[in-house]
Design brief:
This protein is α+β, with helices and mostly antiparallel strands. It is 39% helix and 20% strand. The protein has 15 helices and 18 strands. The chain has an eight-stranded mixed β-sheet, with helices on both faces. Strands 11, 12, 13, 14, 15, 16, 17 and 18 form an eight-stranded antiparallel β-sheet that branches. Helix 11 packs across helix 12. The longest helix is centred in the N-terminal third of the chain and has 58 residues.
Length: 549
């Protein structure tokens, strides 16, 4: 079509050029002036028609170019749509819903967190953590969430973290994340707690095992407008309402980090192998219909959820966060999912039991006495937790044990050394000691001492050194010099001949004994400063070599 119009245009241009010459030639052969006028008018008319055809050709050419541009744009848009569809299909359902809400031009919109907490719209960073320590680890099996608030009397957070971390092996440490949420808005307090955790657990922070967050002060609504309900005073209503929001913030932060989420508290202790036990129990469930796996019967401790269910749980809690405490709301979720209003309560309980499955014995014990609610004393204990034996199969070498500490009841040092029980003593003072003198001098390769236990995690040894007494101090020094290593001299030696080789940290002392010391006559724990608490020595392990005959 374009070529035809171009040919017509070229012909018209030739006619316009040669028209005057043709007209002159014709005039020379015509005799009559009238005939000349007639042909001249016809030629002029032909020229006008050709010019009009040329203009029409140009117009049609422009229109065709417009059509071609539209076709190219349509092809490009179709390709772009294919790319968008591929991208869209790769998005999660939650992200699709959010994008649909943002871009949809219809009047219907899905509810979001801003419908339940409209005050969040007033501050841009209201949903961003004010504090964030850690490596942002993702892709793990289990995420453990610990909300922690300021307590008037005593904080149990450090003991809780010590218990949780000490019971993890290396593989478990690489397949889990512990998220501590400092649920306070005072920046001085939250920063202080975060720095304290960072100083006590630097390797755990650096490796990605431990993360510390704190919500923005703008995350919480105005609690002064809450109405009293269920006979609770206003302060308790505020406490439980804020607690619900704390759980929501922590769950929203943790949901993308792992497969399972476990809710814990900041005043608990854990049993050995607790993480693998929880993971295996979840994997062994015959059906995926479960919603909550319980590893403690108390409150909101040891509750496992699938991370995929956290969005539903958070949304339900946000709808009623001002109305009821968290444990009631969780039960209501189960009721809504499986209970038939036309059936009796027993039928409902049977149905809920398929969604809420209990593991026994409990893996976590509540140890806190002073509640996060000001003035409240609670002595809750999980009866299914039972007594935990921290001892491992090991026989210590024969030795005479002695101590300057006053023993509490029947918890003697002899029983602790023989792996029969733990040693429990009254408050120590500077200069007190615990000594193990071997019946025959022998080489000790490694040592391990653990203070505190599950029931009394605070009864630990602080500022206490581990000391050894070589059987022949002069001989050990000679061996060190002969080997070109002044090993003995790099350690501090006490006035009575003992050499300091270690100290307690977080209630534990462990390490290797330098072989240049030779056979040892005794090992001693020396307390350097007064302690504010009683002490428990729950594990005493000395890996020995060949004894002196």
């Amino acid at each position: 079509c374009c070529r035809l119009f171009l040919k017509l245009s070229a012909i018209s241009e030739l006619l316009i050029i040669f028209l005057p010459f043709a007209t002159g030639l014709l005039f020379s052969h015509l005799i009559s002036g009238d005939v000349v006028d007639i042909y001249q008018r016809e030629f002029l008319a032909l020229r006008d028609r050709l010019h009009a055809a040329e203009q029409e050709s140009l117009k049609r050419s422009k229109e065709l170019n417009v059509v071609l541009d539209e076709i190219k744009r349509a092809i490009s848009e179709k390709q772009a749509l294919r790319d968008i569809n591929r991208t869209w299909s790769s998005l999660s359902d939650e992200t699709k819903l959010k994008l649909w809400n943002i871009t949809n031009k219809n009047v219907l919109h899905l509810p979001t967190i801003f419908h339940h907490l409209p005050h969040l719209l007033s501050k841009e960073n209201s949903l961003q953590p004010a504090i964030h320590l850690g490596q942002g680890r993702t892709g793990v099996s289990i995420v453990m969430g610990i909300p922690s608030v300021k307590r008037e009397v005593h904080s149990y957070l450090t003991d809780t973290l010590n218990s949780l971390i000490s019971e993890l092996n290396q593989q478990e440490k690489e397949d889990s994340v512990i998220v501590v949420m400092i649920a306070e808005t005072d920046p001085q307090y939250t920063t202080g707690v975060a720095e304290n955790i960072k100083s006590l657990f630097p390797s755990e922070i650096h490796s990605g095992l431990l993360e510390v967050i704190s919500p923005s002060p703008h995350f919480y609504p105005d609690f002064s407008r809450l109405r009293e309900s269920f006979g609770d005073p206003k302060e308790r209503v505020r406490w439980r309402t804020k607690q619900n929001l704390d759980y929501c913030f922590l769950m929203m932060y943790a949901q993308s980090k792992g497969i399972y989420y476990v809710q814990l508290e900041d005043d608990i202790v854990a049993k050995p192998n607790y993480l693998s036990t929880m993971k295996n129990f979840a994997l062994q469930q015959p059906s995926e219909e479960w919603m909550i796996l319980e590893f403690s019967q108390l409150g909101f401790i040891g509750k496992m959820f699938k991370s995929l269910d956290l969005s539903l749980i958070v949304e339900f809690i946000l709808m009623f966060y001002k109305d009821k405490p968290i444990d009631w709301l969780l039960d209501h979720i189960l009721w809504v999912k499986v209970c038939n209003p036309e059936k009796d309560a027993k039928h409902c309980d049977r149905q809920k039991a398929n969604l809420r499955i209990r593991f026994k014995p409990s893996l976590f014990q509540h140890v806190g006495t002073h509640s996060s609610l000001a003035g409240k004393i609670q002595k809750l204990k999980d009866k299914d937790f039972g007594k935990q034996s921290l001892r491992k199969e090991h026989v210590n070498p024969p030795a005479e044990v002695s101590t300057s500490l006053k023993t509490y009841q029947h918890f003697s040092l002899e029983k602790a050394y023989l792996r029969e029980d733990f040693f429990w003593a009254f408050t120590p003072t500077a200069g007190d000691f615990i000594r193990f003198r071997f019946f025959k001098p022998l080489r000790i390769e490694r040592f391990f001492f653990r203070s505190g236990n599950i029931e009394h995690p605070e009864d630990k040894l602080f500022n206490t050194t581990v000391e050894v007494l070589p059987f022949d101090s002069l001989q050990s020094d000679k061996e060190a010099l002969q080997e070109g290593r002044a090993t003995a001299f790099k350690y501090h030696r006490t006035s009575d001949g003992y050499i300091q080789i270690g100290s307690f940290s977080k209630g534990i002392a462990e390490g290797e004994v330098d072989p240049s010391f030779g056979p040892l006559e005794a090992i001693r724990l020396s307390i350097q400063t007064d302690s504010p608490v009683w002490i428990i020595l729950s594990e005493v392990i000395g890996h020995s070599g060949q004894a002196i005959k």
